[in-house]
Amino acid sequence: MEITESDISDEYHALVRDVYGDTVREVNSHYPSKRSIRLDWKEIERFDDDLAQRFIHSPKRTRGTVESTLECWDEIDMPEVAVRLHNIPDEYHFRVGKQRTIHLGGLITIEGEVVEMDGVKPFAREAALECRLCGTLTRVPQTYGKMMEPAECMGCERSGTQYIFQRSQSDLIDYRKVILQRSDTNLDDDPPILVVYLTQDLVDRVGPGDYVSLVGYYDTAMIQKESVLETYLDTWDIESHEDGVLADRLSPEELSAAILEEVEEHQDDDPSSFGADREQIIETITGEGVRRKEVESQLEDLIDDREVNDVGGGKLMVP
Ligand SMILES: [Zn+2]
Fold first, then answer.
1. How many angstroms is it from 122 CA to the middle of ligand 1?
2. Among residues 195, 246, 240, 203, which one has the least CA distance to residue 82?
3. Ligand 1 centroid to 167 CA: how many Å?
């Protein structure tokens, strides 16, 4: 059933068009290179406390309604836009492993270190499955993990038939699995970890070794093998997010070249002292959308290889 403008209550229209109108128009004018609308929970709370509480108590439904509200605004056209939410109340903020059963099915912010990352893969948010016997196509919404098939074909009404996956008619998005581990812990031998899923434009926003704060929906996997449950975080936003910063934006060679060029350009700036300011070099390159961690570690490598000299006082020189 298609949702129309009048099905949605006024506060959603006001949130999207008045409170976030400028943001939405800005993203729309850069779509699809920009495709996230980032909502600040505390700002929503200032606008309408009741609506803010709905984001906490029934997050999926509330987010879905905001997405529908965007869809029926005829001034904009962003079919694949993602609604993101950050800055949720501190009481829902945990280090990895401190979240509890009571938080399942709700939004939480989880803090930890990225210790493992899989490659980016396509995830079928909705899979189009064709019955091998009669050719009927059924669309089945999916969760992460095992492919869910219809219990019975809607065409031939047989159960236990085989299905063929039809990619072109499925709804696919980018997906990446990440393992987050508690940092700064006394539990040295076995620090708690949490499986985290990143989707769409978030897949490139973090890298190994990053300390991140992720807002997401805490859930149990659909298929469980044991009574002690497998859980995960479906990331809705990256709290420690810097706009436009991507992991691996430059190759190590390109990054080295950028650092060397920057040091050479600035090492003679100040006639009263030698060298280019280290912090300023790092700032300049991170300002171009490279992760700080990558810049720092590449710079360390250059110093180790004596391609850049650390001349003391936070100054660098190319010999
Ligand atoms: Zn069939």
1. 26
2. 203
3. 18
For 124-172, CATH gives 2.20.28.10
Predicted local distance difference test score (pLDDT) of residue 312: 86
Token pair belonging to 85: 């939410």
Q: In the numeric block, which tokens belong to residue 266?
A: 């600035």
Please state, in angstroms and rounded to a whole number, the distance separating the CA atoms of residues 97 and 112: 10
pTM of the entire predicted model: 0.79
Quote the pLDDT of residue 190.
82
Residue (of 155, 121, 116) closest to 137 by Cα position: 155
CATH number of 91-120+174-238, picked from 3.40.50.150, 2.40.50.140, 2.60.120.260, 1.20.1050.10: 2.40.50.140
CA distances from 251 to 12, 133, 248, 258, 289 (A): 43, 49, 6, 11, 13
Ion ligand 1 neighbours (CB, 5 A) are 131, 133-134, 136, 153, 155-156
How many angstroms is it from 1 CA to the middle of ligand 1? 24
Residues in the chain: 319
Percent of the chain with pLDDT over 90: 66
CATH assignment of 5-87, among 2.60.15.10, 3.90.226.10, 2.30.42.10, 3.30.1640.10:
3.30.1640.10
Say whether 70 sits in a helix, a strand or coil. helix
Q: How far apart are CA 85 and CA 202, in angstroms?
A: 13
Whole-angstrom distance, CA of residue 118 vs CA of residue 208: 10
